Amino acid sequence: MCEMHEARTLRGDVWQALARVADPELDEPITDMGFVEDVEFAGPPDDAVVTVVFRLPTYWCSPNFAFLMAEGISREVGGLPGVTRVVVRLEDHMHAEEVMEAVNGGRGFQAVFASLCDGGDLSELRATFEEKAFQRRQESVLVRLRALGWSDASIAVMTLRQLDAVDFDGGEAAAQRPRYRELLVRRGLARWPGDLAFRNWEGEALPGDGLKDYVARLRQVRINMEFNGALCRGLQGTRYKEVQTVDGEPTLVDFMLGRVPARETSLTSG
Amino acid sequence: MYVTPEGKEIFVVDGHIHFWDGSPENQRNIHGKQFIECFYAYHNALSPKDELWEKSRFEKYSADDLYRDLFIDGPDDMAIIQTTVLGDFYKNGFGDLGRAHDMAKRAKDRFIINGAYDPRDGEKALEYIHYMKETYDIQGVKLYTAEWKGDSKGWKLNDPWSYRCFELLDKLGIKNVHVHKGPTIIPLNKDAFDVHDVDYAATDFQNLNFIVEHCGQPRLDDFCWIAVQETNVFGGLAVVLPFIHSRPRYFGEMMAELLFWVGPDKILFSSDYAIWTPKWLVEKFWNYQIPEDIAAERGVQLTDEIKEKILGLNAARIYGIDVESKKAKLRAEPVSIAAE
Q: Where is the MIP18 family-like domain (chain A) (predicted)?
């Protein structure tokens, strides 16, 4: 009984960890996109081997994006207490073998794909995607603030403390605010509650006399990302294969469909 | 011909269609199977429920199917067939030039059949361009930069051999270059959807028109920027247009950007048949308005005049079609297929 309790807790933790992995192209969690198909546990709960099975919308999805997701899965799940080893399994992909070898074998992207990389690594690509994610998150917050009646001048001098206090009343902006903040702080663009809440990716303060052009540029970034997001969801929907449910136990499908609240598993199973 | 609710006749040129054979019999390997399945997933993902096809019909459809879907049930006056070879994936090619010509025999005036080549073939590519010009008098080509060939997983429009091919197109008066920017595989450490090679090619070959299919999505911003600067860069609406059904507001955002940056004279309708059929696309497009708030941001709207350009007049211009005489000719030769 005790073991089941532990296993179920770990299952919830793994799901939460997977939700922190985003598709780099879309900046949306792989769990929301339906990419994760199964999670298998082996070994005792304090020394578990976790296998994560994921599938992308098409056989052709760019292998560098696939690698970044596989690497994120390995990092996030591998960082959980009690997990000794993570095995990532990519299904039905033209470069599945190479991606798995790069991640599970610890060889890294560059070594496995050397002949296709012109000798470069993924740092430039990572930086590009991080910038786009920052812009998409920021746009969502800016658009909502303007809709709530904040003037461009007041947005330009808004502090983090003020931003935190705004009542977005749910919706996209409420979901994106903490995600925007996380990248803002990680990049060192703001550190203290009194720091400016908005800067562009290069670190410059936003103009107080008309944000229209700036927001229009961010909108284009979002339009691009939404295009892929919408296509990927549609394609995934037609390719997705149902995971079998197992007698009474919460399965991966339950987690995917939100039937199992994050912490409730450990409370109800004892 | 699309007839508006007010009774106005709109000339429709479908800028990008296929006559493919993706059937299991023609598949060379797993890649061929996955390729047509990917197309089928696009079809399923973005079509209205009552427009869905059975998989076997989608894999291989007949000439009669095509005539009916485009010209009898559908509103197309003309269609531009794009050749997509994919020789590494299909035994007899996916979309084959000769097969397209056989299919088009019954109504030659309704089709423009574009060729295709692979600049990685070097001298052979040049010879093949000559062959296509002499045999079929092609006016345009379709280039698919993400195509695999042996160890190569793609190429760029500004590669040296690609430039040799463009020089020859220019010399032979083959003016229209349709570019499909699929995800390029190499170099793997770069953005897989980069469209900047279009910029170089368009600058260096001012006599050629570059029609970028699906408007460079998912790099719409880069595409818009290039199209603003290069007068010979156009946007094809393949894949973009079906969003009008599943996500109409989002479609409005894309159209607002395209109209603002690229302009109403450089956007071309296409159904991407048989991924989608033109009937529902054209009907929805004609009845569509960009939502007010989005239109106001960019100061643009899809007026009837602009829709007419996009649906046919723009393609007619770059392909040298005299619309009035073409209409008269087509009216005299109605399309018919065997009764079912």
A: 13-87
Domain B11-319 superfamily per CATH: Metal-dependent hydrolases (3.20.20.140)
Q: pLDDT tens-digit profile of B64-102?
A: 999 999 999 999 999 999 998 888 899 999 999 999 999
Task: List Cα–Cα distances, B297 to A32, A173, B225, B288, in angstroms.
Answer: 31, 20, 18, 18
pLDDT tens, position by position, B100-115: 999 999 999 999 999 9
Lowest mean pLDDT among A50-64, A197-211, B180-194: B180-194
* From B41, B153, B221, residue closest to A224, measured CB to CB: B221
Map out the domains of chain B as residue ranges. Answer: 11-319
- Which domains can be identified in chain A, with CATH numbers? 2-121+230-262 (3.30.300.130), 124-207 (no CATH)
Task: Give SS3 for B317.
Answer: helix
| pTM of the model as a whole | 0.85
Q: Which residues of chain B have a Cβ shorter than 8 Å from any chain A Cβ?
A: 31, 34-35, 37-38, 40-42, 44-46, 153, 182-183, 185-192, 217-221, 224, 243, 246-247, 250, 253-254, 257, 297-298
Helix (H, G, I), strand (E, B) or coil at B245: helix
The structure tokens listed for A250 are 């919460």
User: What is the distance between the alpha carbons of residues A134 and A217, in angstroms, rounded to a whole number?
Assistant: 13
Q: Which of A25, A63, A238 sits opposite B188 (nearest CB)?
A: A63
Contact B251, B240 (CB under 8 A): yes
Query: Given the structure tokens 């156009």, which residue do they identify?
Result: B234
A121 touching B (Cβ < 8 Å): yes
Contact state of B250 with A230 under an 8 Å Cβ cutoff: yes
In the numeric block, the tokens 């917050």 are attached to A141
ipTM, two decimals:
0.79
